[in-house]
Amino acid sequence: MNDLALLLSPEGRALLDEVRDTDPARELAVATRLRREHPAELVSAALGQARLRQRAVVKFGAEDAGRMFFTPNGVEQSTRASVAAYRARRLAESGVASVADLCCGIGGDAIALARAGVRVLAVDRDPVTAATARANAEALGLAGLIEVREADVMEVDTAGYDAVFVDPARRGGRGRIFDPEAYSPPLSWAVSAARRAPLAAALKIAPGIPHEAVPEDAEAEWISDGGDVKEAVLWFGTEPGAVRATLLPGPRTLLSRGLPDPEVRPPGRYLYEPDGAVIRAHLVAEVADEVGGGLLDATIAYVTADALRPTPYATAYEITDHLPFNVKKLKALLRERQVGTLTVKKRGSAVEPEELRRKVKPQGPHSATVFLTRVAGAPAMLIGHPA
Known about the structure:
Layout: H1 2-8, H2 10-19, H3 27-34, H4 40-65, H5 72-77, H6 81-93, E1 98-102, H7 108-115, E2 119-124, H8 127-139, E3 146-150, E4 163-166, E5 171-172, E6 175-176, H9 187-196, E7 200-205, E8 219-225, E9 228-236, E10 243-248, E11 252-255, E12 270-274, H10 276-280, H11 284-291, E13 294-297, E14 300-305, E15 314-324, H12 327-337, E16 339-346, H13 353-360, E17 366-375, E18 378-386
Parallel strand pairs: 1-2, 1-4, 2-3, 4-7, 8-10, 16-17
Antiparallel strand pairs: 5-6, 7-9, 8-9, 10-11, 12-14, 12-15, 13-14, 15-18, 17-18
């Protein structure tokens, strides 16, 4: 809290501007120089904040990250801005004008909601985190739409708000928490709060949540950004029972049609690697139906087909070779093809990509992708390239 107060002072803001682009390798020299003119505590706080802002660029973009304030946990746990903006648009388009943002962290979701024109009550029980969220609302000119309150979210009355958004803490002293009832607050409490919301609610949860833990009256959505799965969301007041995978940028959304598992078939000319959100949402069957394909193995989310049918929900590869798993044969084939750039993908294989690269020692001007997987239960290698 003291660090933040120092940085919000006129001297602190000026120093933040001065150290904005400091190379971490030069921090010691910069700190030594600045301590001749500024208090050592302020210099340390400014350099630490500059380091956090540099890390935050990937989530918030350079412009916002350069104005916002961060804590180490805040950078690590905050929602990527593109995902928060998508979720905020969904709430705004459903007619929501006000949201109680419970467990607001440093304010990333509150900022996205405010920019969508939604009035926000942002609540966090940690004093430093709440103060940081308040500073961020002011720094981005959104203080008129965001009220930040330091409180236990389980004791906050949300009756005056159209919707509730809850982002429970999913990390503890020993790392990630996988049991939804061990979240803080527990998922059962968050679901109860969501059901009391007049118009809608959204609960941010871990992408690995078991499907059987999804309440029957909730819509479940898995979201990826740039191919990386970022989160799952339980929606209330939207489409009960619906399951969807949403890919950003876009957005592009694939809805479950309740299709049966695809049939297992021999490898065709093309292999489709579904997006991670599609896999987490259990929508591989929808992708297989879209491309007219089947599975290489009943337990593995690789789709194979004879025709190329581009889809945003999977990356297509043209397969040139299908071999039983054999490192010596792979090495000989790569040498013959003069493959020096080898991309190794695996699913259903215990072999590590780096281990395989060391063994085959790829050399040459060409590139290839090898899939280490199973075909109808048998270890196999499929070699190809992006279609």
